[in-house]
Specification:
CATH topology of one domain: Dipeptide-binding Protein, domain 3
Number of strands: 21
Strand order of the largest sheet: 14-18-13-17-15-16
CATH class of one domain: Alpha Beta
Number of helices: 16
Largest sheet: 6 strands, mixed
Helix content: 10-25%
Structural class: alpha+beta
Shape: globular
Distance between the termini: 7 Å
């Protein structure tokens, strides 16, 4: 959930709550393991053999998988893997993110916009040999509509559905209660009915016991070990064409320095989420390319608004002083975003303002005039004094209960930016007379879900369609009871925000909807439970002697890891193959090198109605 980074977008930024059936045709013996130090493994001098490059593309990850069930998963690494293994009705074009066919080849709405009909492609096969049909999509949506546990991850997309049917294998009909703007942006993995209808409790089934997992995406999950690896093989039946690498492995590294060292040795092919120092060092390395481009994530501070459930019961132990908007305002006035961008992100980020990153220009909003909480420590002092939080003889701010203002902040132990930013916050808030204890944990999700925090570093990866990252701040996203897990990011429940969310959800005019989304960001900013610090660049690197060609998204200047689609790993071509190919091996790279200068250009994606979302660093994604 959290960067809960919940992350990311979250997650991340990234973070999130945490959560497979035998298919014919792939056996354990068919998996090729390339062990470090073997004849096929990369050479210790940083080079790599052609056979290793041809056989396996290894991606280093630092985030734990919350679940391999697409009904439960919210973290970026998990949702990214689901994009590889299951088709959605529609996809995003790699060049500019406009809607393109996925499992559906065409779609149309009735004149009143209350009935949508999708034509399901004939050439999509499940990896066990059965054809994917409209019945699979209808069953997926109906399960989410009738079982709250199946709606944990993506229930916002089906909450407005009235009826879903499959009149024939190639026709899916969705009837709505009211118009819904996301009908060409339903970011829901479609699962095989003949497999999943055997599942009992969707709240507990993590889809991680039997392999290979039946899917219809470009890859098939063949093995998984918690916090070790996830292995995938190409789906030879994939309608768009099979991936070029013989195996895709996501390998877990708790320490990012260890992941970078593995990249230098050729033991992994790709490393995301680099620190600026790591990226700068890698630019001088032979056979390594660094990608530095505007990202799709935000990096934020979240405050505990008083954790509660839909049944009205409160829980957790958040500091009640943070329920005072004047305290939150003072804290944010004492944050120097320029310093964070320059010193923590070393200019590989843009200063944070609204909730949606500037990469999504249609929805980007920023505060102006007196509403902007620009760095002003003197004003922060005045706000606290006027609100009755005076300093005592020891220079400590005292709350209305007579106790010193001392807060805790959740920090990701594997996220260097959290630790670095926390030191600045301790300094800045300390001058106000406010103490800050930094809790850097391997797993921030547990205390976050229990409401046992005061503040937290938060973040999500935002999709072209912002519906999902907006939905996680609605009252409907709260857990049903304190013992349950909801889709909420930070327990925010604001009737005004909910009213705006409902309006944008039924608005089909792109400009009008964008205006409402900006109002929502304004409301989120003014309530002060969430404050965006920065929009980090996508800072990542790969070995050019293993990966000869790969697509970023957007193609002109975008990210490779955590895309709104499967383009990067599906398009990746082994270096040995491109070296022997007479075609243009550089046309698909779309990679920029830009270390040392801030990327301030806004990538105008030209978002039209109906493009999609997510995924949260820990991203939640």
């Amino acid at each position: 959930m959290v960067m809960v980074t919940k992350v990311p977008p979250r997650s991340p930024a990234v973070r999130g709550p945490v959560r497979l059936l035998l298919a014919a045709g792939v056996t354990a013996a068919s998996l090729v393991a390339v062990a470090p130090g073997s004849a096929q493994a990369a050479r210790a001098d940083g080079g790599s053999s052609a056979s290793a490059a041809e056989s396996t593309l290894t991606v280093a990850i630092a985030q734990s998988v919350d679940s391999l069930s697409p009904f439960l998963a919210q973290k970026l690494v998990s949702t990214s893997i689901h994009r590889l293994t299951y088709e959605y009705l529609t996809n995003y074009d790699v060049k500019d993110a406009h809607t393109v066919p996925g499992l559906a080849t065409a779609w149309k709405s009735s004149p009143d916009k209350l009935t949508w009909t999708y034509t399901i492609r004939k050439d999509s096969m499940w990896s066990d040999g059965q054809q994917a049909t409209a019945e699979d999509a209808a069953w997926t949506f109906n399960k989410m509509m009738t079982d709250p546990n199946a709606a944990t991850a993506n229930g916002n997309f089906t909450a407005n559905f009235k009826k879903v049917t499959a009149p024939d294998p190639e026709t899916l009909v969705v009837e709505l209660k009211k118009p819904q703007a996301t009908m060409t942006a339903l970011d829901v993995p479609i699962v095989p009915k003949h497999i999943w209808e055997k599942v009992g409790d969707f709240s507990k089934f993590n889809n991680d016991q039997q392999f290979p997992i039946v899917g219809n995406g470009p890859f098939i999950i063949t093995d998984f070990k918690v916090d070790q690896y996830i292995k995938l093989k190409p789906n030879k039946k994939f309608w768009r064409g099979a991936p070029k690498f013989e195996q895709l492995v996501f390998k877990y590294y708790k320490d990012t320095d260890a992941a970078v060292a593995a990249l230098q040795k050729g033991e992994v092919s790709f490393v995301p989420n680099l620190t600026p120092a790591q990226a700068a060092a890698l630019t001088t390395q032979k056979n390594i390319k660094v990608n530095d481009a505007p990202g799709r994530r935000f990096y934020a501070l979240a405050t505990n608004p008083g954790a509660r459930a839909k049944d009205g019961k409160s829980f957790g132990d958040g500091n009640p002083a943070l329920l005072d908007p004047e305290v939150r305002k003072a804290l944010f006035l004492a944050v120097d975003r320029t310093t964070l961008v320059e010193r923590v992100f070393q200019k590989h980020a843009v200063e944070g303002e609204g909730y949606i990153p500037p990469r999504f220009s249609s929805y980007f909003w920023k505060p102006s005039g007196d509403r902007k909480l620009a760095y002003d420590p003197a004003r922060a002092e005045q706000v606290l004094d006027a609100a009755g939080y005076k300093k005592n003889g020891d220079g400590k701010r005292v709350g209305k209960d007579g106790k010193p203002l001392d807060f805790r902040i959740l920090c990701h132990a594997t996220e260097p930016n959290d630790k670095a930013a926390a030191k600045y916050l301790q300094e800045w808030w300390g001058k106000l007379g406010i103490g800050l204890k930094v809790d850097c944990l391997d797993n921030v999700s547990d205390p976050w879900l229990k409401g046992e925090y005061d503040l937290a570093f938060d973040g999500w990866s935002v999709n072209p369609d912002p519906d999902y990252v907006l939905s996680i701040h609605t009252c409907g996203a709260l857990p049903a009871t304190p013992k349950d897990t909801g889709a909420t990011d930070n327990f925010i429940c604001d009737p005004k925000f909910d009213e705006l969310y409902a309006r944008q959800a039924v608005e089909y005019d792109p400009a009008a909807r964008a205006g409402i989304v900006k109002e929502m960001q304004s409301r989120l900013y003014d309530t002060g439970y969430m404050n965006v610090l920065a929009y980090p660049n996508a800072l990542e690197a790969y070995r050019t002697d293993q990966i000869g060609s790969i697509k970023t998204m957007p193609e002109a200047a975008g990210n490779l890891f955590g895309q709104d689609g499967y383009w990067s790993w599906w398009s990746a071509v082994p270096a040995a193959q491109t070296a022997n190919d007479s075609g243009d091996q550089s046309s698909g790279t779309g990679v920029i090198i830009g270390i040392g200068a801030a990327v301030v250009v806004v990538v105008g994606i030209g978002i039209a109605l109906g493009m999609r979302r997510r995924t949260t660093a820990d991203d939640r994604e």
